[in-house]
Write a structure and sequence with these properties.
Elements lengths: L4 H9 L4 H46 L3 H9 L2 E13 L2 E8 L5 E3 L5 E11 L4 E11 L5 E18 L10 E3 L8 E13 L3 E9 L2 H6 L13 E6 L2 E3 L3 H4 L3 E7 L7 E3 L5 E3 L7 H4 L5
Parallel strand pairs: 2-7
Antiparallel strand pairs: 1-2, 1-4, 1-12, 3-4, 4-5, 5-6, 6-8, 8-9, 8-12, 8-13, 9-10, 10-11, 13-14
Length: 291
Amino acid sequence: MESSGTDRMEHLSGAPSAQEEGAFSSHTAGSWDHVMSRLLAVSAVLVIAVAALLLSLVLSSTIGPSNAAVQKQKELPYTFFFTHYELLGNPNNPDGVRYHSNGKPSAKAPDGSKVILTGKGAWNPKKDIAKGGGHYTIKGSSGALKAKGSWRVTDFRSFEQFSGWWGLGPNFKEKGWQGPPGSSSFSGFLTLKVNLRNQGEGTLVAWCLMPQVLKRHPHLANPDGHVGDGISLTGGKFNYTNFKENEMSLEGVMFYSTDPASGGYVLTPEGTTVPRPAPGENHDKLQGELH
């Protein structure tokens, strides 16, 4: 059968026949399905990779400290926290304590004004370096606000450590441990150079004196007059040296260290504390020295 004129014109002009159009559409659909399959496969790989990355980040943050945190602990192995003590059980005969890092220790000047500090920091006694800071409030003798702002540590001066801890029996629980895992805690006097914004430079002394410390070192109570934790701020325009009121309160200071040679007391899985063995010392022997 001869082709019609229309068929010949379509052939001569290059226009596809109906059969060719069907074949082309089938080929295009197959190519598009292939592209979509590849895109879906790539997307699935990307989703899995992102999920794996997120999982690794979550695990690294929950399993242990980050590399930056570990490095900071090595650089500044000693830490301090201005702490509020919450006595557990009978306040007159507590069976435990919870440490809160929102402590507000204070000291008064001869004119009746008061400085109140919050904050935390760290230091390295071997390198004579320290960092830290927080906020300060200064009130007049009437209690009216005179100034407030931030403060920061500018230099390390000294740390004197004392033996002894709570001394309230082997079942005395300590909750809210603020130091890094494996750290020990201890009593002592920390002296730092500080700067109070808009107030100037001064010397801050912060101390932690647990009940047993005062028994082991009686000079701290008499003639020094201490009965507990406190602070003082002197130098420049500061003369806050009266710590009596604070030492009778539950506002204080906690010290910690990750240095194995620092001694002190470490937290047990039961929530009590035991003396940290010196390097190479028998831990079982020290169990009899609880508190």
